[in-house]
Amino acid sequence: MKNFSKRAFTLFLVLALVFVSAPLTGLKLTAEAKSSSGGSVISLFCKHRKTKTTIKAATFSKNGSEICKCARCGKVIYKEVILKIASVKLDKAELTYTGKSLKPSVTVKDSKGLALDEDLHYTVTYKNNKAPGKATATVTFKNGYKGTKTLSFKIIPALSVKRGSSSLTLSWTKVKKAASYKASLYDGKKLVKAVNTKKPGAKFTGLSKSKTYKLVIKVLDKDKKTLLSASYPIMMQLNAGLTKAQIVEKYAKVYNTTKKNGKFIGYDAANVRTFKINDKENSVVRNVLDKVLVTGSEKMQLPPYSEKNPAKKCLVTAVDIKTATYTDNADGTATIKLVPKTVKNPKRFKDAQGKMFNVGEISNETLDNIPLINWTQGDAKSNISVVCGGGYAEITYNKQTNRMTKADYTLVSTISLKHANILVFEDATAVMTYDYKMLFPSNSR
Q: pLDDT digit string (tens) for 212-221?
C-alpha cells in the first residue's frame, strides 16, 4: 500500500472527528429525506423526524435485513441487506503453553468476504485455554447477526532443551490427567529412539552435532490412549550455530531469489491496538478506525516497495537488525525471524524500519493542513511523532530452492500528538498504536 502511515495518520485524526459529528449529520439527512412521487399527503409533508428501525438478523444460512421507516407516515427511509455469515476461523490452530490464558484471534467474514467487527457484531468466549490440551473458542453473534459457532484449538506443552555435544536433555509442561508420556526422536522419517516415561522429560544420547531432529511427544492416559500429541523441531546447535550476520545473509539470499524467480504475491490488513485521548482508551473510535484501516488488498509485493522505486534486492543488513533467529523445521524448510531496530519518523528505503517495511512518510505540509485541528503551542512538526518498533519479518522457505513459501511482515507503529485542540478537547494528547501486516501468499488467508 502506498503511504500507509500517512493514510493511517489522516484517518486517526479526521475519522475520529467525523465519528463524533456523525449523529448530527445523520439527523439532518433523516429530516431532509423527501417523499417519492405519488406518496400520501402525510408522507409528502412529513419530515420523518421520528423513525422506527426493524432488524432481521442474518444467520449462517440466510441474509438478514435492516429497515428504517418513519413512525408517523410509514415511509421507508432506507433498507439494507445484512449478508449472511460465510466463515468463522481462528488465526492459529495450535499454541504453546505459556502459563497464561491463550486467545487466538477470530476472523468472521460475510458472503462477500467482508470482515465483521468483534465487539460490535460478535463476542468470543474461551474455555480451557490455559493448560495444555484441547481448548475452545465460542463465537456468539449479535447486532444484526444471530447464531453461535464453537472452534477448537490445541495448547501443546512448552519444551525446555539442554544441549550437550552429542545429547539432548528435554523437559516439558506436565499435562493434567496424563498417566505417561512417549517421546520419539526422528532424523527425517527415521526413528532414532523412543522413550516411555511417567515424568515429563527424556534424554537422548549419541546424536549428531550438526543435525536437526524432530521430537514427537504423545500424552497417554492410563489405558495408553493418546490425550494429546505435539511435535517440535530441535536443532543440536541454537540457530544452527549461525551468527546474526549469517542469518541476515541467508534472509537476503532467500529474499532476492524469491523476487528474481517470480512474484510472491500477498495481502495486507491492519489492526488498531489502542486509541487514547488524554490517556483514556476510546474503544468506539478505535473500532471505527480499525474497520477503515483493514485494506484486504491481495496484490502486495514483498516489502519495501513503491511503484516509482521498487526494491529489487534486499536492503536490510545486520546493522539494521535487533534480533535474528533461525529454525530448521526438519521438513525441508527453515524459518527466519528478524526484528529491526526501533526508528522515530522512519523513511522508506533509508533506515532499519524503512528497509524492512512499507513505511510511509508524512510531510509537514500534510500535517499542517489537516482540518479541525490546531495547536495550543508549537506546530505539527513539534507536536506529532511517529515511532515504529516491535514489529518483525518472519519467513519460511524451501532450503533446496531458497524461495519463500510463507511470510509475515508486521509493522508496529505508534502515532502521538500533544498540545492539540480537537473539537471539544483543548491542549489534548492522543495516541494510536496499530499493526500493519503483509502476509504471503495471498491464498493463505
A: 999 999 999 9
Question: 121 to each of 36, 68, 162, 293, how far by Cα in Å?
Answer: 33, 19, 47, 18
Contact criterion met (CB below 8 Å) for 419 and 377: yes
Grid cell for residue 201 = 522429560
Written as one string, the DSSP assignment of 78-140 is EEEEEPPEEEEEES-SEEE--SS-----EEEEETTSPBPPBTTTEEEEEES-SSSEEEEEEEE
Joined grid coordinates for residue 402 = 531458497
280 vs 275: CA distance, rounded Å: 8
| Nearest Cα residue to 186 out of 164, 173, 204, 174 | 204
- Contact (Cβ atoms closer than 8 angstroms) between residue 78 and residue 69: no
Rounded to whole angstroms, the Cα distance separating 179 from 393 reads: 40
Lowest mean pLDDT among 131-135, 255-259, 270-274, 306-310: 306-310
Place of cell 499493526: 435
Q: What is the DSSP pairing of strand 64-70 with strand 76-82? A: antiparallel
Dihedral (CA of 386, 390, 391, 392) sign = positive
Q: Chain-centre distance of CA 283, in angstroms?
A: 18
Torsion angle of the four alpha carbons 254, 256, 262, 267, in this order, in degrees rounded to the nearest 10:
70
- 3-state SS class at 433: strand
pTM of the model: 0.71
Strands 168-172 and 133-141, sheet pairing: unpaired
Residue 168 CA to residue 270 CA, distance in Å, equals 41
